Amino acid sequence: MPDSAAESRDPRERILLAAGREFAERGYEPATVRDICTAAGVNVAAVNYYFGDKHRLYIESVKHAHEARLRQVPQPDWAPGTPAAQKLRDFVGSMLDRMLGGDQPPWQVRLMMRELLQPTEACRELVEDYIRPHFGILLGVLNELTGSALPASEVRRLGLSIIGQCFLYRAAGDVVAMLVPGGEIDAYHTPQAIADHVTRFTLAAIGVAEPFARPDVGTVSALESPR
Known about the structure:
It is built from 12 helices and no strands. It is an all-alpha fold. It folds into 2 domains: 5-66, Arc Repressor Mutant, subunit A; 74-223, Orthogonal Bundle (Tetracycline Repressor, domain 2), CATH 1.10.357.
């Protein structure tokens, strides 16, 4: 899918791309329908025709940006019999790839981060349409790992802890870079290295892997667990 609004022949797609960039860079209030339509190469009336108003355009542009990330890094599809620990690693890895990696334009993530940190009605739709279903998948994996022995509230806290560990690198990436030496960032703070760490940390916390103090025991041995 083209990133530049000018590269798409579909007027609705051009508007969504232009709107996403404007909202990501300037925020909802400063961004104007006129500027969006100019960037998209369409008449101002096109926003009302395709979306009804600026508010609905904003909601659809946030969802459109999220869908683009999902197309690039889909939710894992596991074969029957895949170990739960491997599912956890795959889930965390794909989530971090969507947050930190990939070739999609950075404004897409900035737009979603802006919405998550300063939520509007768009955030509610994003949660209901995408985030809640994915959270349910994560909770299912955690229930597999724990044998459904934990209360639902505790499983949710585990899930939120995992998401929080990943979200830190997106929301406070500049701070992380200030705290961690450059060479260490390059070696140990790539999306996949972070995914390995978060997975191992979680497996150790719920008793599936060896305690984290054992440097000789890595994620691989935990992923080989039959659970």
